[in-house]
Write a structure and sequence with these properties.
about 120 residues; alpha+beta; 4-stranded antiparallel β-sheet; 4 helices; about 30% helix
Length: about 120
């Protein structure tokens, strides 16, 4: 992250975990039911808000003076079982891979721009 001349720059890099960190990625019906019960009401969101406003940005998810870096509604995601399984299993190595994986997935917004710039007012 850097800030210079009114422009915030965020290098949005993805790092794939080591094989030792990866968990069991197989979900049977019982596992999906348990995941839905545990995460059905869960939502994770990370946004940046700029009280003075945004003059220009290359961010994908902008609303007024707020840039959404990540917003995952697990209740909506779990209802899309095939996409949920793919989401839990995937380990994208780049913003482009993440964007392709998340295409058409309801309830998920993730900033995939590799070099995000936000020029402040």
């Amino acid at each position: 992250i850097s800030y210079k001349d009114g422009v915030l720059t965020i290098n949005n890099k993805y790092e794939k975990p080591d094989k030792a960190e990866e968990g069991d990625d197989d979900f049977d019906e019982a596992g999906l039911a348990m995941a839905q019960q545990m995460m059905g009401d869960m939502r994770i969101s990370l946004s940046l808000e700029f009280p003075g406003g945004i003059a220009e940005t290359n961010a994908e998810h902008v609303a007024g003076n707020k840039v959404t870096m990540m917003d995952i509604d697990f209740g909506k995601l779990i209802k899309q079982q095939d996409k949920f399984k793919a989401f839990m299993k995937a380990q994208p190595e780049s913003p482009a891979e993440a964007k392709e994986l998340l295409k058409g997935v309801d309830g998920v917004k993730v900033e995939t721009t590799e070099k995000l710039t936000i020029k402040l007012k």
